[in-house]
Amino acid sequence: MVIMTESMKTVTSFLWAPTVSGALAATLTWLVWFYTTLPCTPETALALKCRPTPLALYLSASALHHCIIHASIAITITGGSDLMLFLRERRRNDKMMELIKTAIDQAAEERRLAFEQLKQGEARAAEERRQGEARAAEERRQAEERAAEERRLGEERAAEERRQAAVERQAFLDALSKFADAIGQNGRNQE
User: Fold this and answer.
1) pTM for the whole thing?
2) Cβ-Cβ contacts under 8 Å for 15 (sequence gap 6 or more)
3) H helices within the chain, ranges in order?
4) In a 10 Å sphere around its CB, with 0-12 CB exposed, 13-18 middle and 19+ buried, how is residue 64 labelled?
5) pLDDT values of the chain reduced to their tens digit, one per residue, 191 residues
6) 71: Cβ–Cβ under 8 A, 6 or more apart, which residues?
7) ∠ at Cα 101 (98, 106), nearest 5°?
């Protein structure tokens, strides 16, 4: 089974009419020659000035010449000469389609690269955002630690001041107690 490509189908659709008309013109020319001339036989060879060969009974040089000329005229009239123009146009269209396909492929590649760059930019922005959030969280944690440390130090200072105040109060009370004892001793001594 012969599989025809699109180009072969197109060429065949353009060639069938010129081919049939050329074959028909050649056949008609040959039939006219065959039925209107004497065949080249050994008896008629001298009178017809031909060579008596087996093929000479069916074809002569002048008949072949007329068949080719008439077939060429029929092919030209029915559009055989247009085939070359068609093939040139087809090649030009194929080249144009290749250029268009190349441009489309190039645009698709550029679009794919732009999309990849966009995704990479989004990934970088997301990474920078994540790092910024991590830095902000770390700074908040450090600020909370500093605040907690300052509270702890403030509480320790306050506790130390309370303890110091308690020690001073105790010392004052002790001194006051000694003073009161001394006054009491002095008062007993005077009695």
Assistant:
1) 0.40
2) 80, 83
3) 6-36, 45-48, 61-77, 82-189
4) middle
5) 456 677 777 777 777 778 888 889 999 998 888 888 877 777 877 887 777 777 777 777 788 888 899 888 888 777 766 666 777 788 888 899 999 999 999 999 999 999 999 999 999 999 999 999 999 999 999 999 999 999 988 888 888 888 888 888 888 888 888 888 888 777 666 66
6) 22, 23, 25, 26, 29
7) 125
The C-alpha atoms of residue 49 and residue 61 are separated, in whole angstroms, by 12
Which residues fall within 8 angstroms of residue 82, CB to CB, at 6 or more apart?
14
Residues recorded for the chain: 191
Amino acid type, 164: Q
For 51, list phi and psi in degrees, rounded to 5.
-100, 125
